[in-house]
Structure formats: structure tokens, C-alpha cells
Design a protein that fits this description.
There is one protein chain. With 286 residues, this protein is an alpha/beta fold. The protein is 46% helix and 15% strand. A five-stranded mixed β-sheet has the order 3-4-5-6-7. It has a two-stranded antiparallel ribbon with strand order 1-2. The longest helix has 19 residues. It is elongated, with a radius of gyration of 26 Å.
Length: 286
């Protein structure tokens, strides 16, 4: 019996976020703990009346404090490129690669001296914790993807499969081909493209290659994903004893429902969280 797309889409979830989705505070605190001593040394510059001199003396005595500076600008990298009218510079914050005067210029022109000297902040540990918290919020997109993977995996396990025995996580095409002797060159463009599937489930009669994702918000990526998976499904249909399965969900699909519907119309094994809740795993893997 053919499914109704609009009805199916109507059961999509707005969110699958758990409590740890928003900020991983243990990660924030661990990152700060690694540089807490150096941040407290830099605290001595707060309110300095002669900050360039004090900075020079501090860095000369405690060069390890330099590693904290990128974080004060909300930067993860230990090298920072600067291009302005004075030319191009690449500052290293692992080990000084310029005279201290250049680092003084960096601190002055980026506004960090002003931040410290004029008491705009009172404690660098607290300030850096706030910056780390903001940077960690950028990881929500990846965490969202992992939430959907975890959800799908839970249902695979409930269906009776065991990891590394009859289901496998994050397998590349070449690994699948090697393990089961299956030719997936149609999917990999004759070996020119390396694709990784989120899960692979192996039953006695079939190999299931699985993709998962959840989109809480819209964007051009959704249309690209729908088209790409439609192509993969068409190519895998030609390969004996291999089935492509896609689990997706999220209110973001409302903005890309036309492309999703095109894939839905040609792909039998496209499922949502609602399908999993209704027991699709027990009927799917045969």
C-alpha cells in the first residue's frame, strides 16, 4: 500500500534535543582547566597603568601565557593571520615567532589591552569560560546529527542486532566491499568517490546501508541531501542483495518538502522517527 507523503511528513518532530544538546559544560570546564593557571597570571594585567611594559615583562617571564590569547578573541587556532596596511603577519601562540613588540601591537590593535587596562572585565577565567561556552554552542549542529544517529542505533539494538556482529557503525564503501565482497562501484563512481554510511546492518539475505539525519531548520543543504540520496537509492537498487535505507526527520524539511517528496516517491525505504516508534525496524531487516 502506497504511503501518503503529506501524512508521513505531518508526523515529523520539531526537535530531538536532550539536556546536553545545548552546551557540554564538562567540555567547557575541561578546556578552561587546562589554561586556568596561565589565565590567572594574565589577570595581573587588569587595570595596569603601563600595560605594554607589564605585558612585556610578563611574557618574558611566563611565555606559556601566550597560548591563552587566541581564546580571548574566541579563536581555536594557535596561529592567527593578520593583514592590514602594515602588511601580513602570522602570529604563533605556541612559541613567539616575532619580537614582543609585535605581540604588543597585536594586543593593542585587537582591543585586548583596552579590555584589560580599562577594567572592562574583572577576571579572565570567568571571561574565558563565557567565550568557551559560546564556542561550544557552535557544536550543536554536530550534536544534532549524533542525536539522530543515537536514536536510530537504539532502535537497531531493540530489533535484536549487536554492534560489530550484525550491525556496524560508520563504514566506508571500501570497508564494506572488503568485508562482504560486494561491488559498490556504482555508488562510489567507479572508486573515485569514498562514501561513508552511518550504519550497515547485515542479515542472512541482505546488506542494508543506512544514512541518518535530523534537520531542525531549513537551508539549501536539505535539497542537496534529498537529491543525493535519491541518486544513491537508484544506484543501489541495481546491486543484488543490497538495500539503501534513509532515516530522516525534523521540521526543517517543511522548507524542502518538494525535493523530499520526489525522493519519497522513488525510495521505498525512507523512514521517520514516527516509523521507528511504530516498529519499522522489526519489519525492515529480513
Amino acid at each position: 500500500m502506497k504511503r501518503n507523503f503529506s501524512e508521513w511528513l505531518g508526523h515529523f518532530k520539531k526537535s530531538i534535543s536532550n539536556y546536553s544538546y545545548y552546551i557540554e559544560f564538562h567540555k567547557v570546564h575541561n578546556n578552561i582547566d587546562k589554561i586556568k593557571v596561565e589565565l590567572n597570571i594574565l589577570n595581573s594585567l587588569i587595570g595596569s597603568k603601563n600595560i605594554e611594559y607589564d605585558f612585556e615583562q610578563l611574557v618574558s617571564k611566563y611565555p606559556e601565557t601566550l597560548k591563552c590569547i587566541p581564546l580571548l578573541l574566541a579563536v581555536r587556532q594557535k596561529e592567527i593571520y593578520i593583514v592590514d596596511a602594515d602588511g601580513e603577519l602570522k602570529y604563533s601562540f605556541k612559541k613567539m615567532n616575532y619580537p614582543v613588540e609585535k605581540y604588543e601591537m597585536f594586543m593593542r590593535k585587537t582591543g585586548l589591552f583596552d579590555l584589560l587596562q580599562n577594567h572592562i572585565i574583572n577576571n579572565l577565567v570567568d571571561y574565558a569560560t563565557g567565550v568557551e561556552t559560546g564556542l561550544d554552542s557552535n557544536g550543536r549542529k554536530n550534536r544534532g546529527g549524533h542525536l539522530m544517529e543515537d536514536l536510530v542505533e537504539n532502535y537497531i539494538v531493540k530489533a535484536g542486532f549487536k554492534v560489530k556482529e550484525d550491525y556496524f557503525k560508520e563504514m566506508y564503501i571500501h570497508e564494506i566491499e572488503k568485508k562482504w565482497g560486494i561491488d559498490l562501484s556504482a555508488v562510489s563512481n567507479q572508486g573515485k568517490m569514498e562514501k561513508r554510511f552511518d550504519f550497515v546492518v547485515k542479515t542472512e539475505n541482505m546488506l542494508y546501508v543506512i544514512e541518518t539525519n535530523f534537520y531542525g531548520g531549513g537551508g539549501s543543504k536539505l535539497n542537496e541531501t534529498a537529491r543525493s540520496y535519491k541518486t544513491i537509492a537508484t544506484e543501489i537498487d541495481k546491486i543484488p542483495n543490497v538495500t539503501f535505507v534513509w532515516f530522516t526527520d525534523g521540521a526543517g524539511w517543511e522548507s524542502a518538502k518538494n525535493n523530499l517528496e520526489e525522493t519519497f516517491d522513488v525510495m521505498d525505504n525512507l523512514y521517520s522517527i514516527d516509523d521507528m516508534e511504530k516498529g519499522i525496524m522489526n519489519n525492515l531487516f529480513i
